[in-house]
Specification:
The complex is a heterodimer of chains A (about 300) and B (about 260). With about 300 residues, chain A is of the alpha/beta class. Helices cover about 40% and strands about 30% of the residues of chain A. The relative contact order of chain A is 0.13. Chain B contains 11 helices and no strands. The radius of gyration of chain B is 21 Å and the shape is globular. The chains are: A alpha/beta (about 300), B mainly alpha (about 260).
Chain lengths: ~300, ~260
Amino acid sequence: MKDIVVLEEVTKKYGEKVAVDRISVNFEEGRITGFLGLNGAGKTTTMKIITTYFKPTSGKVFVDSFDAVENPYKVRKVIGYLPENFPIYDNLTVLDFLRFVAMAKDVVDVEKEVDKVIDLVGIKNYKNRFLKELSKGYKQRVGIAQAIIGEPKVIILDEPTQGLDPAQIIEIRKLIKELSHDKTIILSTHIMQEVEAICDNVVIIHRGSIKLKGKISDLKKEMQGYLTVEYFIDNMNEENKRVIVDVLKEFGLTPDFGINTFEFSIKKDDEYKMKEINKKLIDSGVGVMYVNRSSVSMEDLFLKVIKEENNN
Amino acid sequence: MDFKKVNLIASKDIMEYLSTVFPFISMFVALCFLSIFFISAVYAFFQAAFVAQAFPSFAKNFNVNDMIVTPYLGFVAFFSILIIPIISAKAFSQERKLKTIELLFTYPFREIELVFGKIISSFIIYFVFLFFAFLYLVLFIFVYSFINKGAMDFSIVISGFIGLLLLGLSVISISVFVSTFVDDIVPAWAISLVIVLIFWLIGYTGDFANVMYKNFVKTISLGNNFENFSKGVIDLKNVAYFLSFNLLFIYLSVISLMEKD
């Protein structure tokens, strides 16, 4: 499958601060890619670079084979962008705003296209309202409408469900899924379930660097070979923590500590080792109360990637 | 540059202007002041006309252009300088404040199209203001010529109008440029006003310095370049000055937008 968005060694600095550090990543045509990271990880900066809003400090960005620095105008013609916290022109009506966007994008039949996207995002009854009068959910729909107007090849959605209530989140996710039939969608989020629910591929970014990229299906397949084991103990003091770390280290495992809990991931093939691990923990005086065994979720994977990086 | 895009930006901005009252209140207040000034000037003129009837020698130095039109044009220029930044400092600062600039810069617009669109929308609003400001001046000249059974002399009104259009365009260009790097409307208005006043008043500093400096500041001063227009003279040198001045600030605005991050 063709890569429609290509970033090569892209760095973005704000003064001395490095927001994005030599990232190289490709986005496949016709796929939904989840761009996942914590707040401040560099997702929005990367997206703004792809949209030509920011110029990279160094590196190359190509969208549909056009260089985003050399030819931003051509790039803007093939993208649709929904910024984070969709900004609005308070004093324009939905219809006037969408007509403006359609004309800006050189749409031939403006009225037909505007009617089409209004129907698609379900805002027909609100088209004559001023943008400032809409609820957050409907503003977001208008935001998606302006992004998809003019049939752009690449749609970039920055935190499209942020601030929405659960019912609105489900509706927006459904809408994005519907759009994905013939579009390339790059969707930034800090919610793993969102990526799992609607994306084909995932890219995890942390502290300005790409930490993981791949197909969701491949990652899930890989994760099927792992288990998460969670222990509840009576007293998580420093001595117990030290013992737990030492015991697990012998088996090549690293625990994540909570309040009176710790957990680790273990390969299914190594499950037989659990008997010995339990014995060693109890013999060392760790007061084990309960043990919980579960499959590894995508959320676990995301947190593992982030924690490994933080430990480094 | 695609003029359809320029027109689109200008239309969107005018639609937005029409939905807010502050620029119109400012223009209305300015027009009220202009009316008061104009009525006072006309009143003073007719008083002087009575004196001239009693002392015919006084009538030699007595004409409507010197007593009404030229001072009125100066007054309109003064209010234009105050009013225009209120309208045009919004151009990009409002977009930056509301973050809608993120949309504008990801739609297929070129920086030059955005700058021209913003300038044209402000210019249209300013043109309306100027139209009303000139309305009673033109009416007065009609009536005055009719009473005196003399030929109507609109040359100074026409040159003054052209001069004010060029001056207004220059103030708009400065304000639009400032708005490309200031996020808030009030500071953008204040900075624009300071820059405009510097360019307006700098000519006067030449009166206290050597010839070379004097020539330089008179050449770059908005005030000095406007002076000829208010006296009925359209000098190509002055026209070229205003056009170059505008091109400079349009260029600076485009550069500023290209380097916005």
